[in-house]
User: What shape does this take?
Amino acid sequence: MANASSSRAAPQVTSQPHSSEILENPLQTYLLGIIISICGNVLISISLNIQKYAHVRQSQRGSKPYYTSVMWWCGVVLMGVGELGNFAAYGFAPASLIAPLGCVSVIASALISVVFLKETVRTSDIVGGTLAITGTYVLVTFAPHTSTHITAHLVQYYAISWHFLLYLFVEIVAFCILLYVYKRRNVKHIVIVMLLVALLASQTVISVKAVSGMITESIKGQLQLIYPIFYVMLVVMIVTCAFQIKFLNQAMKMFDATEVVPINFVFFTASAIVAGIVFYQEFEGLALLNIFMFLFGCLLSFLGVFLIARNRPKIKQQDPNFLAMDTIPRRGHVDKVQPEAKTYGSLAAKLMCNRAGQTDDS
Assistant: This one.
């Protein structure tokens, strides 16, 4: 009987050589990834508010630049720890679950800003926070509870699969078209910029989970850092993160944060879910009800983030030495300048008029 059972078991191992690496995560490991991600996002929200408070305090004092503040550096360190926690969470839980948990940072940031920065609580904040928390609970409950033990052989197997290669080809074509429209056609629309960020984020999520998973397996005793695929994924992670930061900075210059934050969250989360489905096959074998409820939870989180970020007051500081063009008086009418124009720029206006008179005389 022992020989017969072993002979029946042997073909199952050889027919699917990678199946031994696809195992159901213990519940403790799964919950550990969720807890690490939530804690990381809370730390990120705390760090952002600390940096904001440091900026406000330094601007009121007006003595030293913000990067000389110890409080600002504390916020930077906390942000690094939070991002490191998010990075580690990808090694314990599915990427399609870790990405939507980013709404925790938005919720925590809204609460902290109300308590410590004395910002006004709006009805949309309460409704949005309730929707986001409800959506987070739903997506955590119905998310796929199985993940992969990421090894170098498994990453190589997934990287050469036909569905990922097709997905990568479509992404490259879409990225080139959007980049052409953005750079050559000079179409500066927020959706185009955020789509560029989302396409890069899709590859970032794939590479981050691969690098984090291989490091986790190496810590457990199965060394994965000797394989070239680890360094390939590391380079992809660094390059895509760098270009994401570049396009996000451009978006923040052209548009207000109240537009960039919710759109970026929605696009990033959608791209991360698609990447997890296509590359890591995280929805394989998941019941249709679970898929529907997971997407419904994501939708509730999206609506909550939009409500929290909607109509936030814009913080824009105008240079006190700035002189608008409509306040510059014409030659010969300096004495008729309106009081507010004289207050902000009468000396500059007189100098410009005198210079204009000298040019005409010459």
Observations:
- Residues 178 and 192 are 6 Å apart (CA to CA).
